[in-house]
Amino acid sequence: MSAEVKKEFIKKLDEKSLVAGVVGLGYVGLPLAMLFTESGYRSLGYDLDERKTTKLSKGQSYINYIPNRSVKEMLKGGFQATTDFSRLAEADTISICVPTPLNENREPDLQYVEQTALVIAEYLRPGQLIILESTTYPGTTEELVLPILETSGLKVGKDFFLAYSPEREDPNNPDFTAKRIPKVVGGQTRSCLQLAKAFYQEVFDDVVTVSSPGVAEMSKLLENIYRSVNIALVNELKVVTDAMGINIWEVIQAASTKPFGFKAFYPGPGLGGHCIPIDPFYLTWKARQYGYNTKFIELAGEVNTSMPEYVVHKTLSTLNRHKKAMTGAKILVLGVAYKKNVDDVRESPALEIIWELQEWGAKVSYHDPYVKKYPDVRKGKLGLSSKPLNPQTLKSSDLVLILTDHDSVDYDLVGKNAKLIVDTRNAMAKIKGAKAEVVLA
Asked: What's the confidence (pLDDT) of residue 353?
């Protein structure tokens, strides 16, 4: 049957009659579904959250950098969002874009991948291509997803096709849109790889094929571990250079003038987002099964997770130096999203920092143009809403703590009206004539 189903798949691909499905319409899944539609394929989006599917069906976006007009264009291109997973049978390709968090013991929690595979197996039909995109440990596609799909009675590479292609989404990066980022693909069999490559070549500018899903899975982990380790390095150096009275940002700028052998990474208040704080520990867990301890990865994790506490103590010492106790101090936090210009608060260090400041007795408020109300997240909830940024708010605060350097924030206004600023992002570096004292953290 393999040759027959492959031929039918390619025919649909060429005729643009193929239906591309996406399970999980979050920060990865929705842009992917949008890209499928832009490439001329009817797209079906599946999600358990009825609020998301209802909004999308009305042409409304719930991600700040995806405008409503883009969703309306998707709908014109045939996109449909649904909570009805029986409609999985309609899709010729199914891209799995569900969360892969860690549990409280820092072990992989693959319940969403497993549950999705079980549902797909229930509706799996000959000719479908299943692509796992969620970040995970090497072996997940072959050891977890494949056996579940084959409970359908269909055989991989013959009746259906399976591949792994790690998401490389960089939210709201105008220089690297999803289409322009090279797409790594590893197929379970040769036929699986051929069809996955053929499909994604119609969607992405560049497709990079590798020999197996395991290689593709590992490549994603390497990308994020590389970033985690280098960010940990500059975070550690930040603490050391601060003690020496040296500006780490100036050091990085100087080192960046070397045209080879150096790539700039920048310190911050801690790691955030779904990838870098979590993904390295997927490999740590898997490595233990082979009798290895990934000391380098774990050390980087320790350094990065210590940054929120460092920021809090820097804030405390700054207040003390100005003869102001933390208890009762009014602290305005600027930015609670995990990175600039997005509304994503997943794993944001702001949550832990605000909690700890409150534990010290501080009266904390925040301003974030993208996060109007801090949502309940896996780590807990704050119960706070964004305050307006104006002279009155700034002047009434004992200290302003910059955690996220959104471009839309008026830092001139901050510099002119704040009393004290603790800056974890070097956001105030370009502001001339600031009346406030600025302390780097």
From this structure: 96
247 CB burial (10 A radius; 0-12, 13-18, 19+): middle
* pLDDT beyond 70 at 174: yes
Tell me how far apart the alpha carbons of residues 255 and 262 are, in angstroms, rounded to a whole number. Answer: 7
Three-class secondary structure of residue 224 per DSSP: helix
Q: Is the pLDDT of residue 274 over 80?
A: no
Q: What is the pLDDT of residues 198-243, one digit of tens each?
A: 999 999 999 999 999 999 999 999 999 999 999 999 999 999 999 9
Q: Give 103 or 150, the one with higher predicted confidence.
A: 150
- For residue 269, being part of any structural domain is answered with no
Q: Are residues 17 and 163 in the same domain?
A: yes
Answer yes or no: are the C-beta atoms of 161 and 126 closer than 8 Å.
Answer: no
Structural domain span for residue 404: 306-440
Query: Under 8 Å CB-to-CB from 373, ≥6 apart: which residues?
Result: 384, 385, 386
Confidence (pTM):
0.91
- Domain containing 205 — which CATH number? 3.40.50.720
Question: Could you confirm whether 275 is annotated as catalytic?
Answer: yes
Does residue 357 form part of some domain?
A: yes
pLDDT score, position 315: 98
In the chain, the number of structural domains is 2
Residue 328 zone, left/alpha/beta (φ > 0; ψ -120 to 50; rest): left
Give me the catalytic one of 145, 148, 203, 275.
Answer: 275
* Distant-in-sequence, close-in-space partners of 28: CB < 8 Å, separation ≥ 6: 97, 133, 134, 167, 169
Mutual orientation of helices 68-76 and 29-38 as an angle, nearest 10°? 50
